[in-house]
Amino acid sequence: MTFQLTVGEATITQVTELARWPFPPWELFPDATGEQAARAAAEFGPGYVEERTGALVLAIHSYLVRIGGTTLVVDAGNGNHKDRPNLLPHHRFDTDFLNRFAGTGTAVEDVDVVVSTHLHPDHCGWNTRLEGDRWRPTFPGARYVFGRAELDSLQALAATEHPEGVAADLVRMYDDSVRPVLQNGRWEIADDGHLLAEHGDTKVVLRAAPGHTGGHLVAEIRSREGGAVISGDVVHHPIQLLYPELSQAGDADPALARRTRDAVLERCARDGLLLLPAHFPADHPFTLIRDGGRLRLLPVTGHHA
């Protein structure tokens, strides 16, 4: 599952770690109902909602951005061999992600910048890989970019005594996917408006998009010809276009997450920006249009690599 598109001077390639990642609706969105899932199935089709079980289907995507001699990875996926006993959907992956990545024609050694929209397991796990009994940066020549608020929050959590449950798994994530980069890699801190790369009239910029986490960011690729938003966990599944009030179970601040989601999706519709989601089980970008009182999601085909 992959596609490639061009925005100004940038070429963007989707690299899929996991193509189908199903969840019961209420596990993903605690307030979701079976009726809502059924409507989503009718609206979006069986690729998004399993016909037999009614489960909502997600995926895990990374995005490879090449611009003016700079190669970036936005959201490095879940990673293999990571212990997440309290977050079982993330536990002990064993995928061929690195082979798929190599299939793009870019070696991990060629990556210049790695950035996570936020520091959750499925967005920073491939920051590192297991070499022998040690975690090493997967992209050895890259500069890793961490959102300031994200890293501060995670380090504060890692400093607590005896974390339990999900918090314990987030500390494990820090120890295997973030700390090794801080100790053995190149890294820097980013705030809202941080410029990742530019060439000609095209820029790749990080924008604050809080709610799912306090320091969540999106990556915007903008040029005179158009733009795209790599949206991370601002939106998880198209059911949230039908029911904007649905908050994902991991949202730190559900009300703020909704305001951010509404704002980002509205900006995509208003400015004609392509939406590049982290978790939609699709091999194409999306546009958004306003249709009466709601935003409608439209697939954009013809961009396959």
Automatic annotation (TrEMBL):
The organism of origin for this protein: Actinoallomurus iriomotensis
UniProt record similarity statement: Belongs to the metallo-beta-lactamase superfamily.
GO molecular function: hydrolase activity; metal ion binding
SMART domains cross-referenced by the UniProt entry: Lactamase_B
The entry's keywords: Hydrolase, Metal-binding, Zinc
Record-annotated Metallo-beta-lactamase domain positions: 59-279
Name the record gives this protein: Beta-lactamase-like protein
One Pfam family hit: Lactamase_B
